[in-house]
Amino acid sequence: MQLLNSIVTWVMKKRIHQIELFMKYPHEVQDEVLKKLLNTARFTEFGQRYSFEDIVNSDDFKKRVPVHTYEQLYPYIDRLLRGEQNVLWPSEIKWFAKSSGTTNARSKFIPVSPESLEDCHFKGGKDLLSIYVNNYPNTTIFSGKGLGIGGSYQVNEFDPTASSHYGDVSAVIMQNLPPWAEFIRTPSLEVALMDNWEEKIDRIASQTAKVDVAHIAGVPTWTFLLLQRILELEKKDNILEVWPNLEVFFHGAVAFAPYRNLFKMLIPGDRMNYWETYNASEGFFGIQDRSNSDELLLMLDYGVYYEFIPVEEFDKEYPKTIGLSEVEIGKNYALVISTNSGLWRYNIGDTVKFTSTSPHRIKISGRTKHFINAFGEEVIIENAEAAVTRACELTGAVINNFTAAPIYLEKSKRGGHEWIIEFKMQPSGLEEFTKILDETLRKVNSDYDAKRAHDLALVAPKIHSVAEGTFYNWMKKRGKLGGQYKVPRLSNSREYVDEILAMV
Question: For residues 212 and 453, what is the distance between their CA atoms, to the nearest angstrom?
Answer without folding.
Answer: 55
